[in-house]
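Example 3.2
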Amino acid sequence: MKELLRALPDLGRMLVRLVADPVLPRTAKLALAAALVYLASPIDLIPDFIPLVGYLDDVLVAALVVDGIVNWVDRGLLLKYWPGTPDSLERIARAARLLAAWVPRRLKARIFATR
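Structure, written as tokens:
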């Protein structure tokens, strides 16, 4: 979790650059847009005013998107925009995979895999 928090600025830059790349699958772009809308919306599955638990749904949505991008999108495309080392991206991928383990692999593959 600490690894993901420290990498947030780099992840943000990479995601912004990826969205502009025509190689990124349309479904992945839609998933990123949907997650952004959900995270920015004041309406959540679990209201944010509930201490600690209120942000759980936001953390899970963010973990799902990060996991989907770093573990399902072509690694060469990610490294093109990743400001860090390949090893640091691999550590982020492992951490995100653990946080989003509850999402079925088939669903992630369908949304994020390049065609």
